[in-house]
Amino acid sequence: MKVVVDEDKCVAAGQCVAGSTGTGTTSSTTGFIHERVQLRRRVAVVTGAGRGIGRAHARLSAERGAKVVVNDPGGSMEGDGSDTGPAQSVVEEIATAGGEAVADTNDVATQAGATCPPT
Questions:
Q1: What is the pLDDT of residues 12-35, one digit of tens each?
Q2: Structure pTM?
Q3: Is residue 91 exposed (0-12), middle (13-18) or buried (19+ Cβ within 10 Å)?
Q4: What are phi and psi of 43, to 5 degrees?
């Protein structure tokens, strides 16, 4: 959510003070307000979650209360091969922090990989 904030009303720590537009914290370089979004009772499916920004999104979703499906086939940067390690590692990090997550190494770029198996 983008909110225009009068920079004179924000303290150095980034906390908006009374009278500013919106609530939460702001980045003095972007002017965005980052409200704390809660994801309790939600499931977040994060693709590419074994590394990089996907990993960060999975961890943040769990921190905010979501149960997370960590999807990453674990291939190389070129897309070759597969490895359960990256997805499982993120699941373990989330569990250690008190969250709930499962690893999924299906390739969701295909219909077969994106289809849930019958239960």
A1: 334 443 333 444 444 444 444 455
A2: 0.66
A3: buried
A4: -115, 130
